[in-house]
Request: fold
Amino acid sequence: MNRLPLSVALLGFSANMLVALSTARGQAPEPDPKALVQQASEFLQKQPAFSVHTEFFAKIESPAVNQESQTKFQVTLARPNQFAMVLEEGDNGISIYCNDAELLTYVPSANIYVVESAPKNTGEVFNTEAGQFLASQSAGGFLLCLIDPNPAEKLLQDVTSAKYVGREEIDGKPYHRCRFEEEQFDWDIWIAADGDPTIARIAPDMTKRLKSAGADAISDAKVDVRLTFSDWNFAPEIGDGTFTLTPPEGAEKLDSFFQQEEEQGPHPLLGKVAPPVNLENLDGKPVDLARHLGKEIVILDFWATWCGPCIAAMPEVNASAEKFADRGVALYFVNLQEDADTIRAFLTEQKLEVAVALDTEGAVAAEYGVTGIPQTVIIGKDGKVQVVHVGFSDSLQKQLTAELEGLLAGTDLAAEELAKYEKQADEEQKTDGPADTP
Reply:
């Protein structure tokens, strides 16, 4: 007969006694945070439709900065694939309408929109441009998780540890607060303790991500970012136009928010003297490219707050430049035709502290041949355009790092790239042979 060691047996006995004593005293065992998320998920999964008021809120306080922004939406869902996220308040938001036929994303601030084929279910919104655009926002990815057919699976897929924080009240109602840690960021969630296990708030802590992107400058600031939910309705009134938008008069339809792969052939500016840049920053101080010539490599990243790929690219570009900040590399994010307040609110929400140049008329962008954003331009110390990237890719930071290393080592990247194109053109000409004459 197998017997447990006496110490192990006593330990198990003691643990059981503690649970029994806690229960006897009215102290229930601490809830499992993952189980609470699973309960909330299963409850949502059972609902054929719902609507909820949603708010993205961001606030940053420090001796130098005191700003906040909020964006309010009305979210409505009807399974399997009808979804609407309608912007009600805020300058930096988007509206998304998905019905059985199409998925339309509208950017009110720029009066532009994109139409895609409707996904088969709301979980596939992740794979659309609308989903990528929304996920690029600081809390948008959590909203995408909640409209997924299996919210718990999406929410918990990258969690490395979980902790039950305790019970807290929001607007007089009790909620379970749970904290989850991931490799890139941590987040808290509040789930109703009484009645239906609805979610009231999700608050991401982006400290880890900011540090990895080189944004230590705001480490001492008090930052509050959260996604709140109120007025849950599980029997919403759904009309004929709930999931459809007729774009406003004058709205421009784009084929894509994301730029296509860079065109075949070198960028027209490659290897040429960079056009002058004489702009102002957010504080009204001058940004002059000429003062860097002969001393520093300069990166110009053309962007806008409504551009999803730009938002994805900014931390990557910033992290690349930070690696070489003490070796003579300067970076300016050149914003296209947006006002300073809109940009400040955006930077607060994204927890980014970067140098911004205001191209309010779009004149500098025109000089640099910007037809799609993001466009990232690297200018050598000699004032010549060495690199031009159009669009965003997951390898952008790696590319920029290698290119900056090359330039600092004295490599003429533009000359090498132009030589490649010239060689390629010669080979194509030899392959095609002389043109036939009739």
